Amino acid sequence: MSETVLITGANKGIGFEIARQLGQKGWTILLGARNKERGLAAVKKLRAQGVEVEWVPIDLNDLATIHVAADKIASVHPELKVLVNNAGIAGDMDAEPLATKTADLKATLDVNVIGNFELIKTFTPILERHHGRIVNMTIPAAGNRFFHPFAYCTSKSALNQMTKMFGESFRSQHIPVEIFGVVPGGITTDLNNHMDNRFMRSVEDGAGSVVKLILDKHHHQGKIVTRFGGLKLVKKVITGH
């Protein structure tokens, strides 16, 4: 039986490329996407490349869809090994803190924090059957002068802290699930209007780094794995350990 992974927001961008690369390594792909048309279009593309894949309706703005997906996967794919929390929204990327609208900040937190929190809670009982992994796609906790969208950075900082605390909890409660965050670096996607400069990575390159981590045998519990320079991945521990 092949390994099975659920990737949210996998109908495009780095999520789709992670699905493609894992699928070509023989993994069964559960492609999470909120939009049926886009989800099925992505499934069609992957199947044309020989990937075993199916669409799973998941909308991080609708927590009920997470529960429905978990019930189905627990029944049909109890072998689920990895959850990649890739889906997210950027919010207003140009607004300074004082110019950020409360509604925009709330919407970003609802998806990037609350939605991912619900996914982690809901899928942990399924993943612990096979000592599974939860991979949270994220960014460094602190912004910099080149990239500092307020709502997005705020939400990802919360996600990083959540990753740390889940990791500590899993360790202390002896829950056989590993959770960690991955910072693949700047990736040229529609999230950043296809920004392209010498600091940005291609979708293929970024996804390749994530896939290597998914497949490695190292322990990253509660950590954020960050890429520094070239293609080298260096673990940067922000958990205090």
From TrEMBL:
Any matching Pfam family: adh_short
Keyword Metal-binding annotated: no
Entry keyword NADP: yes
GO terms of molecular function: oxidoreductase activity
Source superkingdom: Bacteria
Keywords: NADP, Oxidoreductase
InterPro entries the UniProt entry points to: NAD(P)-bd_dom_sf (IPR036291), SDR_fam (IPR002347)
Transmembrane segments: none
Stated family: Belongs to the short-chain dehydrogenases/reductases (SDR) family.
Alphabetized PANTHER family for the sequence: CARBONYL REDUCTASE 1-RELATED, CHAIN DEHYDROGENASE FAMILY PROTEIN, PUTATIVE (AFU_ORTHOLOGUE AFUA_3G15350)-RELATED
Name recorded for this polypeptide: Carbonyl reductase
Organism the protein comes from: Secundilactobacillus mixtipabuli
